[in-house]
Amino acid sequence: MNELTLTSLGIFSVLVFQNLLILWIASMLSEWWVRKLFARTQRRMGPSYVGPLGILQPFADFLKLLLVKTEPSYKYGSVTLARIFGCIGIGALTTSLFLLPISPVRIASDFDVILLIYLLGVWVAVSELLMFTSLTNPFAIKGVSRYSSILAVAEPAFFTAVIVPVYLTSFVARRGPVFSVSVAVETAWRLWLNPLTAIPMLLATIAALISIQSKLMLPPFNIPEAEQELIAGVETEFSGPLLALFNFLHDADLYVLSLVVTFMFLGGPHPFSENLVLGVLTTILKYLAVLTTITILKSSFGRFRIEQGVTSVIKYALIPALVALILSVVVLSFI
Fold first, then answer.
1. CB 125, CB 155: distance < 8 Å
2. 295-325 pLDDT per residue, tens
3. Apex CA 265: angle with CA 335 and CA 150, to 5°?
4. Average pLDDT for the chain
5. Which is higher by pLDDT, 14 or 141?
6. Considering the entire predicted model, what is its pTM?
7. Residues 99 and 106 sit within 8 Å (Cβ to Cβ)
8. Does residue 96 contact residue 256 with C-beta atoms inside 8 Å?
9. Fewer CB atoms inside 10 A, N or C side of the chain?
């Protein structure tokens, strides 16, 4: 094996395998935290049997679906296409990690926030929609129509919120790439120290959290999978390895979106950026705080109707995000 091949394999292992492995492990652990906390809010045990405190239960469930459960044969639709689209979504999530400090290799350039929006806002959403429609079923199609209605307002709301810290830090930091995720990650914490920038940051953070709730079809925005009406909606035809792939995609989406909020809105390791151990612990605590907030929202509301869901996303996510962006433009004239 020549030196070029060894170098290529080394680059492949750093850029793909390491991030993908981290994505899978972190996604499963995030699922455990959400399931455990959600169960506790309902006075249930939650995952309890596999591993200490049931922490290995999501891994066991994933492997059971992947290796033990079988998929039914479909007369119409294509399981292969569904798998391909699911893998595309996971690939987009894996690639998006290169923009965050979690990756051993970082992408940092002018306007790299566009790449983040392209990966998380376009490819993940498109891959999910195409994955759902690859297996024809009237309940799934109805669920897709509802999911599309939610995404039409949730995606713009989330990425309008993300643009707020990117826009502000591009002018406040006055160094490094402009409109860059890396600059926002490093300096967003400073925006909370100034009352003028703290207000748009607060509005943007609220908008981002509610958008995540709706993008992931979590209660009260789980209209696309209303069991009483649509059996399982978009997931009606999913079983075995295909369901494992979708669950991984869903959990990975939760992990990456929560990580974006942790770093770009809450400052990641700050105020211990110079201390590796304390910085990592601080980042984990902030990340768990984001997951906890999402889980509390999940357990506090019943399912909305489709028109209620869309209206709520517009009212509590899209409008606050737009107001935050407008305030950011105005605030910069006073700084």
1. yes
2. 998 888 877 888 888 899 999 999 999 999 9
3. 115
4. 84
5. 141
6. 0.90
7. yes
8. yes
9. N
Looking at the predicted structure, is the pLDDT value of residue 41 above 70?
yes
Render the burial of 109-123: b for 16+ CB within 10 Å, e for the rest.
Answer: eeebbebbbebbbeb
**Predicted local distance difference test score (pLDDT) of residue 313:** 92
Q: Please confirm whether the linkage preceding 269 is cis (ω < 30° from 0).
A: no
Report the C-alpha gap between 327 and 312 in whole angstroms. 22
8 A C-beta contact, residue 177 and residue 107: no
- Taking residues 237-258, report their average pLDDT: 88
| Rounded CA separation 296/219 (Å) | 10
Say which range, 107-111, 247-251, 330-334, has the weakest mean pLDDT: 330-334
Tokens (6 digits) for 11 = 């680059």
d(CA 270, CA 86): 35
